[in-house]
Automatic annotation (TrEMBL):
Pfam families xref list: Cauli_VI, RNase_H
One of the GO biological process terms: DNA replication, removal of RNA primer
Keyword Metal-binding found: yes
UniProt record similarity statement: Belongs to the RNase H family.
UniProt-annotated stretches for the region Disordered: 49-78
Location of the RNase H type-1 domain: 81-229
Assembly mode: Monomer.
Domain of life (superkingdom): Bacteria
Catalytic activity: Endonucleolytic cleavage to 5'-phosphomonoester
Descriptive protein name: Ribonuclease H
Species assigned in the record: Oleispira antarctica RB-8
Role description: Endonuclease that specifically degrades the RNA of RNA-DNA hybrids.
Amino acid sequence: MAKKFYVIWVGREPGIYTDWPTAQKQIMKFSGAKYKSFPTKAEADAAFSGGSVSSDAGAGSKPRGSSSKTSRGNNLSAPPIKTDVVIYCDGGCDPNPGKAGSGVAVYQDDQLIQLWYGVYNPNGTNNTAELSALFYSLQLAQHATKQGLSAQILCDSMYSIQCIRDWAAGWEKNGWKKKTGEIKNLDIIKQAYALYNEIKETVLLSHVKAHAGTEGNELADRMTMVAVERKDPAWVQYEQDSNNGFNIPALLKMRAG
């Protein structure tokens, strides 16, 4: 794997970092963080010593799994840093509550490499489907980090992100209870939170705006409807054409969730 250099202009400790986990700590939950990865030290030195923030800082030259539309930075709540692997997850329900399914799109080195769908629930909710998608994304991210790859998960459900990243720790300390009543979807929250705790120092979990033209988010959305249509309760890898890989334009024309 080629070495990368991470420039952080705005963060806890601005500077140039040579490994993703250390760089991530400088920008994790840091409001207004500005950062970008570079393939060579010379480029990183020039960018950092220039004293100005790159116009596309925080996203690399183009967000992974994004259309040219999203590369302007308008459509992502937290644009992905240029990590090796970017995982988009989504959940869908038609109606809500009703037939629910989850979907994931995985990119590595700017290329779509995997699509996943499943966890069909005939009596599910959108939140349950979103949490399931996030849980399986955490598993995929963990697999990537074990291979020495940097990873980021982009989820369009702030509810799911806050359950796992912000609220679960307090709920756990309180015996998995909250003052305002029942914690809904507690089983999947517990599973996802336990996994998140294992990898949170090496995997960045961020929000992406839904249905804003971001290719990875749109593909994850299409997979939620594949799950609903195929009624598969398992977690299944979507098939590629044996010769041509994924036909992304055709996938994007599929039914949206």
